[in-house]
Amino acid sequence: MENKQTARSVELGPWAIGREALEAYLEAVQDSSTIYEELDLVPPPTVAAFVLREFLRNEQLPAGTIQTIQQLQSMRPVRIDEELRCDLWLSFLPEEDGWTPVSAVFIVQDREREIVLKGRTVVLVPSGQAP
Amino acid sequence: MTAQAERWSLPCITKEVTLLQVRTFAKVCGDPNPIHLEPEFASKADYSGIIAQGMLTLAFINEMLTLAFGISWLATGKLRVRFQLPAYPGDEVCTFGSATNGPVVQGYRLITSRIGLKNQRGDNLISGVASVSVSVPANQ
């Protein structure tokens, strides 16, 4: 059960995933699919990875944090260079076996505040080090 | 609505996880966590070496789903996965997926797949479920 007393919301962005950033990402993950370039689109996990990047910058999660769950739901494709922003709700769950689970539920919106992607990430933070 | 569910396997994407890849991904995604970068830190955290980022290994599953479903995955995809075990540099990993046709509703078929990633020893590193809505021509 979530501990409501340790929940909070965070606004991230705006940011955009440009062609150069997408190419660097695809090179890192060795994905040579041409569909992204052909359709000018960003894969959903790339958007989530950049949400996590913004999240890490914002929250400064401690060394040793590991990811355990990822959920994603695309509402429509995300275009390269599209301006995105994200609302994220953090919940710090009860400590278990030396770890504090942190759940981050997020919605990614476009410039018009239409939702383009929804998701949830759960990470385990070494106990006593949760931000 | 279909009378019987139809199942098929999704394409297997095989990758070798490399140290360079883990470092490059950390740089691209702005993840300074030493568990992905410093062997000494990783060993103190009870790993046998640095571990690959979960989102890096999830990208292999994304590649499988994009190959299988194309724009439908990018536009309507939904997934839920659990990272069960870490991937290490030097591991050879392979995606797997088993798709099942669901009913056609208002011209779209919901396809649900059990998905995952295994290493060369057959250990499940990731497991979960993905679904997409695929447009179905009117005469089908």
Describe this structure in words.
The complex is a heterodimer of chains A (131) and B (140). Chain A is α+β, with helices and mostly antiparallel strands and 131 residues long. Chain A has three helices and seven strands; from the N terminus they run βααβαβββββ. Chain A has helices at residues 19-28, 35-39, 44-59, and strands at 7-16, 41-42, 66-74, 78-79, 83-92, 99-109, 115-126. In chain A, strands 1-5-6-7-3 form a five-stranded antiparallel beta sheet, covered by helices on one side. Chain A has a two-stranded antiparallel sheet with strand order 2-4. Chain A starts with 6 loop residues before the first strand and ends in a 5-residue tail after the last strand. Chain B has helices spanning 19-28, 39-44, 54-69, 71-76; strands spanning 7-9, 14-16, 78-83, 92-105, 108-118, 124-135. In chain B, 27% of the residues lie in helices and 35% in strands. The mean pLDDT of chain B is 94. Classes of the chains: A alpha+beta (131), B alpha+beta (140).
